[in-house]
Design goal:
It contains ten helices and ten strands. By secondary structure, the protein is an alpha/beta fold. The chain has one domain (14-306): TIM Barrel, CATH 3.20.20. Strands 1, 2, 3, 4, 5, 6, 7, 8, 9 and 10 form a ten-stranded mixed beta sheet that branches. It starts with 34 loop residues before the first strand and ends with a helix.
Length: 308
């Protein structure tokens, strides 16, 4: 299948797939659309020279370059930049925020997953050239914030979130494609910190995942969510991602010197995408994956919206 997605009913380009959906889908809540998302979206930018943030079992080895570089291979869940993910059709971004404990700048913030990113939060711009595509930014974790409200306020006021206030979708309404287009809004910001009550910040979006490296476990957990506890009036995420152990068992994986997390994902995605394609009437909402820029992942999720 070409990058243009020819042969997909109603969608010819993934870069602006939302505006190509059939008209009957323009007025349904976004909670009822199937939306491709990326897990640990900024992990392509991890810095092997940074200290180890997680898991706790490896923190004491932060000074060892070989350990940091090995961890990098297993913490990088994405290979494409944010811009490339957007162009590929990804519309949900999992952004985990942290502050370095001994940073001379008390308000400088980074993304992280195991390690800190090279790029700080302030210089990242979620700019997209397709204003009719709705983007969901999920900010969470806030490692090193230590319940300091001033850091949260600083993050919210950063130019990357507040330079175009009119583009943000209010949580006061049930968003649809049509309502967003009519209002000229296209960014939804979920902020996982209950003390923040800004009008344009959405509360935490539930993220369901298998918490395992076993594909069968991931499928089982997500199937149970869709069958028994599927949220109906809010966004929710089904995470296809495999999860490394957070204890000493992680060594069973990271010591595979000729392997990497990206390779594990490439081996597991075909089976996980088969599970996605089989959902049909119990369609998930946001489906998040590692290596989310892959066309087979994006197309499998989008096709749930237009399959008969």
């Amino acid at each position: 299948m070409s990058a243009n997605g020819k042969g997909k009913r109603g969608v010819t380009r993934y870069s602006d797939w939302m505006m190509q959906l059939p008209p009957e889908l323009h007025n349904i809540p976004l909670f009822n659309l199937a939306i491709p998302g990326s897990h640990d979206s900024m992990s392509y930018d991890l810095d092997s020279s940074s200290s180890i943030i997680e898991p706790d079992s490896l923190k004491k080895f932060s000074r060892l370059c070989c350990v940091r570089k090995t961890l990098l291979k297993w913490a990088a869940t994405q290979e494409d930049t944010i811009t490339k993910q957007l162009d590929a059709g990804v519309r949900y971004f999992d952004l985990r925020i942290a502050r370095k404990p001994h940073d001379t700048n008390p308000t400088r913030l980074y993304f992280y997953h195991g390690l800190y990113t090279r790029t700080d939060v302030e210089v990242v711009r979620m700019i997209y050239e397709h204003p009719r595509e709705i983007i969901i930014l999920a900010l969470s974790h806030f490692k090193g914030f230590d319940q300091k409200t001033e850091l949260h306020n600083h993050l919210i006021k950063l130019h990357c979130l507040s330079d175009k206030m009119n583009i943000y979708v209010s949580q006061q309404v049930t968003p649809t494609l049509r309502s967003c287009w009519d209002q000229g809004t296209n960014v939804i910001v979920s902020y996982d910190y209950p003390a923040i009550h800004d009008s344009y910040m959405w509360s935490k979006i539930s993220y369901f995942y298998g918490d395992s490296m076993k594909i069968a476990r991931v499928e089982s957990v997500l199937s149970e969510v869709l069958e028994k506890t599927r949220p109906s009036h809010c966004f929710f995420v089904c995470g296809l991602n495999l999860t490394l152990p957070d204890d000493a068992r992680i060594c069973l994986y990271v010591l595979r010197l000729c392997d990497s997390f990206a390779n594990v994902v490439r081996r597991s995605l075909p089976r996980l995408l088969l599970w996605v394609k089989q959902q049909g009437s119990r369609k998930p909402n946001i489906v998040a994956s590692d290596l989310a820029g892959r066309e087979d992942f994006v197309s499998a999720v989008i096709q749930l919206n237009i399959s008969k």
